[in-house]
Specification:
mainly alpha, about 0% strand, TerB-like, 2 domains
Length: about 150
Amino acid sequence: MLPDILETLPVNEKRSVLAVLTLVCAADGELVREEMAALEAKMGQALLHPEVRREVRQMLRQPPDIEALILDMDETSLKLAVRDAVLIAAADGEYHLDEIKIIKKIADAAGLQSNTIEKLINWVEELWLIQAKGRSLIGLSIPGDEKLLDSS
């Protein structure tokens, strides 16, 4: 994985970003494998201590209060939470209305422009295409790659 700003945040800000991501994972009332894998990957990228990871996983069962989270986060963390929340929301192949509501709330708190979420959704589609191309180069694919590659 390439270096990211997430890695440079203080532990409390990393924890807050990941807390937001747990809200997105749990937003539609269903914890799916793809979202869990994306959350675990983000925790790995953040280099969180195993105890903090356990705390974050517990938030999936007992979600934190979004308003309290927002108040405690700085602008950088809010912006990263928006970006990564769009990635998490996309992990199961569709964006649910409840996920988008949470993302919009965080984007508003971060002071982002109203079209930022749409731009991030397009960015995720570009990432998926790039990953499909990479798999294609080595002769491997996953379900959906053909459709992505045909549409490019």
